[in-house]
Amino acid sequence: MLRRLLLAALAGPLLGAAGCALPEPWVKPYERERLADPIMQFSRHALPERHREHVHVVREGARGATGVQGGGCGCN
Amino acid sequence: MRLWRRFAGLLGSLLAGQAAHAATLPENRAEALVHAYDGGGVTSTGPAFLVRKSMGERVSVSGSYYVDMVSNASIDVVTNASPYRETRHQIDLSADWLVRDALVSLATSQSREPDYHASNVSVDVAQEVYGNMTTVSLGFTRGSDDVGRSDTGFFDRVRTWQYRLGVTQVLSPTWLASVNLEAVSNEGYLANPYRTARVFGAAVPERVPRTRSSRAIKLRAIGDLGSRNSVRGEYRLFWDNWDIRAHTAEVGYSRHVGTQWLADGLLRYYTQGRALFYSDNAAAETTYISRNRQLASFNSVAVGGKLTYRMDNIPARYDAKMTGSYEFKRTSFKDFTDIRTGERYRHDAHVLQLLFSGTF
Q: Which of B159, B294, B297 to mutate against chain A (most A CBs within 10 Å)?
């Protein structure tokens, strides 16, 4: 399952590298002003995200793929 | 082998040939957080501090200190033992290097509490490609923990391996999306030395496999709606070889209010199925048996809000902000009985954060 997902995730960039499918980058650097706004960040601050992640990981069975660097346990 | 060489060649040409602009170091920043969790008989509070500073043009270092002061009278504790208090301290150190067009990060973390010591080291690499529209990141963490009991001391270990892959894509001048995958494997003592399971109504020590392997994939998208507000959505699928399958969905909304305020709201839903060897009250003796609520079938709904106030700002010099957030969570178990009442267990929780942050 994971192998198939990895292949799917890499297929686009690799096709682009091969120069056969992807168009030229269509969003130019000068068009990214709105993407730099704080409201467009998935995570604005490290410590609150780490706290929230810890609240979840010690109480839920799921883990990983959060985009937050964890560490520590407090599992007991 | 031939296929792998072709794959490596394509990846190499992608990374080397299409990186039009150099990656940048994270900005200098400082954060001071007071956090609190109160729910299900557990109260956890503490401060946390973080400082990140660049050293020259190619290196940035950061350090953080995090404290959890826990007062535990959870349902496990009040039905098996006596409420207790303990404190956990965690220190994180990291260094980021700009190497050509890639950002290479090395990090280490140490966590200490009376009966559990955790340490790990990580390496992560992020590379912007495709005219800076795509960021590809790879990461690996190796962890080593010591597990103990307050009465007998440390008696066993847990080793952890984590492998990460992430791709963030600029879709348009107003939309971003990302996909993250992570595989985590553990080997060692994965039970809780204090917890008991129930077999025919009698308490027995829980018995849990010494290995666990999990996979998770998370998809996220965020878009600027115009008028200084944005919306985001994310979904994570999780599965492991203990037969737990979990779904997490979250939506959020952010909006500037005036020149100095920023408001956020979120809604989160989490649901999971039980582990193969979880039982509320087993009707047979099995090799593995657990009554750990974390491995039960349950769902959790959360609603939260956050307000940020810009206290002071001089562009390109510094920016100081204060943020307060609150999240309400309700967790409902499908197969965990509150043996005090005989009903399915359910609890509410409150999560509070107060943050002072600044970039300089």
A: B294
